[in-house]
Structures are given as C-alpha cells and as structure tokens.
Amino acid sequence: MVLSSIKYIVLILKINARWIIRRPTAFLPVAMSLAALAMVLGHVAIYGVVHEADEGTVAHLFQLLIMAQVPIVAVFAIKYLRQAPKETVWVLTLQALAVLTAMAPVLLLNL
C-alpha cells in the first residue's frame, strides 16, 4: 500500500514539478545541502569523529552552506507559491529533507 502511494506521488512529481525543479532557486538549496553533507562525511572519513576545542574550517563552511539556503528558499517560496502551490510545496519538502539529511550526521555524532 505504501509503495503504491510512493509510486503515485513520484509519478505526479514527474509530470507536474519537472518545470519548477529546474529553477535555480529550487535546486540550489538541495545542491548546497548535498555539498554540506559531503563535507561532513569526508571530514569524518579522513579524521574520524573528533571533538576539537575550536571549530574547524569544515564546521564554518557547513554553517555557511546551511544558513545561505534560507534567503534562497524564501525567494523560491515567495515567487512560486502562488503560481504553482502544489509543486512548490513538494519542492520545499525536498529542500527540507535535504537540510535534515545534511544535519543528521552532525546531530547524531555530536560534531
């Protein structure tokens, strides 16, 4: 039942949201979240889970990547929420999931 629901949602997204996800304000926050996730996982893979007294460069870049998404997502929501509300909500959900995925290793490993 759940699998068929997911397939239905993916089918709707493929048909309706294809034009909106191509907008830079739609895909850029997702790309920034993936870059932040890659940086954290790369740092953990190279140096392991270490708790430093001072935050390093990776931590500062991570914070900048996450915070820089806020104005981009706001512009996207303001611009497209009235034009295509359903598609915009799906893209905003995707953006939120990407941010949560990037933050998960930091929260779980107490970095």
Structural notes for this entry:
The protein has one domain. 82% of the residues lie in helices and 0% in strands. The protein is built from 5 helices and no strands. The chain has helices at 2-16, 18-21, 24-47, 57-80, 85-108.
Notable characteristics:
111 residues; mainly alpha; 5 helices; elongated
Task: Summarize the structure in short.
The chain has 111 residues and is an all-alpha fold.
Give the arrangement of secondary structure elements:
Elements: H1 2-16, H2 18-21, H3 24-47, H4 57-80, H5 85-108
Number of alpha- plus pi-helical segments: 5
> What gap, in angstroms, lies between the N and C termini?
38 Å
Mean pLDDT: 84
Radius of gyration: 17 Å
Low-confidence stretches: none
Question: What percentage of amino acids are in beta strands?
Answer: under 5%
Helix content: over 70%
Largest sheet: none
Number of domains: 1
Shape summary: elongated
